[in-house]
Structure formats: structure tokens, C-alpha cells
């Protein structure tokens, strides 16, 4: 739904080009402020799925700001980030579901230390969280670089907000990984059913495109270049 909303913004914004300044500035302020607010909310979440959902909203703040600027670079970055985060967010929800099916709880304090029980699943958690942080060589990094460069060209003070947002994103991504995978596992979770091949296949089909798309980003960015 977030990505569908982003597509709708792209279609509507093109009709309003060039934007009236009195319409553009308030929406841009709300989008940039939303990045900081939703990222900060992620840091105090106790529910795993709520944390992932707020993470998606935080990334869409960047997309909204990029769409408002209405340059080829910003629209390309918005499209890349929507595709990249669509796969990343879906992978995170799939991982959260595998945890919930075995522990029957989404509370972060109760599902610690799962690396001991599921070492391979812990690897998926690490790779997905690194992708969520836009670590190279993922396509997420390319999308964020396009958007941050465009926003900086539009107004140089925006680099402060986008920089802080990127820092908070890295913080809550590491927080999510450490809270779910590290530490001592609870005694009630000593006997957990093993992970299945279909779950690993699902995660492979999420993360493999993210790794391969960096080889030819034009597949998802050619509309606006």
C-alpha cells in the first residue's frame, strides 16, 4: 500500500509541475520531519512487527520528499527505493513471521538469543538488516544516494535531516538484530521446531534480486533517466 501511494504521488505530482512554492514547502517539511519522527519511534518499539512497519513509513518519507522535488534524479531515486524497500520490508516481515510461528510472541524482550537455535536464520536476519541500513552493494544505497543528492541540491540544510535519519535507521536496524538474535535464549524456547527449506527459499527470492539489481539498476530506474 505504501508503494502504491508512492506511485500515486508520482502520477499526481507530474500534473502539478512546476509546483507552487506555497504548496511544495509545507509538504516537504512534513516529509522530512516524518523521517525523523518515525525513525525515532522505531527506537522505542517493543513489538517486532510494529518496528518493521514504522521502518517502512520512515523510508517512505524519503520517497515523498524526492517526489515533491520533481527532478529526473529524484524520481529515479524514489522508484529505486520503493522497489528496494518493498523487497527488504517484505523479507523482514517474513523473518518476523518465522519467529512468531515458533515463539508465539512478537515482544522483543522475550525472543532474544535465537541465533543459538537458528544460526542460518540469524544469517538471514543480518543480511536483511544490513540491506535495510542501505549498506553497499545493495540497490537501497543507490536509491538513497540519488534522493539525498537531489535534496541537498534543492536545499543544503536538508543534509542534516537526511544524515540524522540515516544514522537512526542504522541504529534501529542493529537494535532489531541484537534484540532478536543475541543474548541468552529463554528457557521456554529451548525446544523449538527447526526452520524449513521453503522459508529459506522465500528469503533467498527476496534478497537475491536486491543483490543482482545493482548490476543493472536501469531495470527499475529507466522510466525517469
TrEMBL record:
Keyword Membrane: yes
Annotated family: Belongs to the complex I subunit 4 family.
One Gene Ontology term, aspect cellular component: mitochondrial membrane
Domain NADH:quinone oxidoreductase/Mrp antiporter transmembrane: 1-169
Gene Ontology molecular function terms on file: NADH dehydrogenase (ubiquinone) activity; NADH dehydrogenase activity; ubiquinone binding
Protein name: NADH-ubiquinone oxidoreductase chain 4
Catalysed reactions, semicolon-separated: a ubiquinone + NADH + 5 H(+)(in) = a ubiquinol + NAD(+) + 4 H(+)(out)
EC number per UniProt: 7.1.1.2
Location, primary (coarse class): mitochondrion
Keyword rRNA-binding: no
Transmembrane segments: 23-43, 50-69, 75-96, 108-127, 159-180, 201-224
A family per Pfam: Proton_antipo_M
Organism whose genome encodes this protein: Podarcis tiliguerta (Tyrrhenian wall lizard)
Gene that specifies this protein: nd4
Superkingdom of the source species: Eukaryota
Function: Core subunit of the mitochondrial membrane respiratory chain NADH dehydrogenase (Complex I) which catalyzes electron transfer from NADH through the respiratory chain, using ubiquinone as an electron acceptor. Essential for the catalytic activity and assembly of complex I. Core subunit of the mitochondrial membrane respiratory chain NADH dehydrogenase (Complex I) that is believed to belong to the minimal assembly required for catalysis. Complex I functions in the transfer of electrons from NADH to the respiratory chain. The immediate electron acceptor for the enzyme is believed to be ubiquinone.
Membrane association type: Multi-pass membrane protein
Amino acid at each position: 500500500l505504501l508503494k502504491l501511494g508512492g506511485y500515486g504521488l508520482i502520477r499526481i505530482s507530474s500534473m502539478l509541475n512546476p509546483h507552487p512554492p506555497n504548496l511544495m514547502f509545507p509538504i516537504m517539511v512534513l516529509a522530512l520531519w516524518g523521517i525523523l519522527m518515525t525513525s525515532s519511534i522505531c527506537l522505542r518499539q517493543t513489538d517486532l512487527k510494529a518496528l518493521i512497519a514504522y521502518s517502512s513509513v520512515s523510508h517512505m518519507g524519503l520517497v515523498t520528499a524526492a517526489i515533491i522535488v520533481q527532478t529526473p534524479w529524484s524520481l529515479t531515486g524514489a522508484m529505486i527505493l520503493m522497489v528496494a524497500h518493498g523487497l527488504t520490508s517484505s523479507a523482514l516481515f517474513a523473518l518476523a513471521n518465522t519467529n512468531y510461528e515458533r515463539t508465539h510472541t512478537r515482544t522483543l524482550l522475550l525472543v532474544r538469543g535465537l541465533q543459538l537455535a537458528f544460526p542460518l536464520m540469524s544469517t538471514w536476519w543480518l543480511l536483511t538488516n544490513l540491506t535495510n541500513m542501505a549498506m553497499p552493494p545493495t540497490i537501497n544505497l543507490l536509491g538513497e544516494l540519488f534522493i539525498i543528492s537531489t535534496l541537498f541540491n534543492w536545499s543544503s540544510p536538508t543534509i542534516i535531516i537526511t544524515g540524522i535519519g540515516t544514522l537512526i535507521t542504522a541504529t534501529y536496524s542493529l537494535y532489531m538484530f541484537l534484540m532478536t538474535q543475541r543474548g541468552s535464549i529463554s528457557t521456554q524456547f529451548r525446544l523449538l521446531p527447526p526452520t524449513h527449506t521453503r522459508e529459506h527459499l522465500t528469503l533467498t527470492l527476496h534478497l537475491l534480486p536486491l543483490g543482482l539489481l545493482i548490476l543493472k539498476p536501469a531495470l527499475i530506474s529507466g522510466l525517469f533517466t
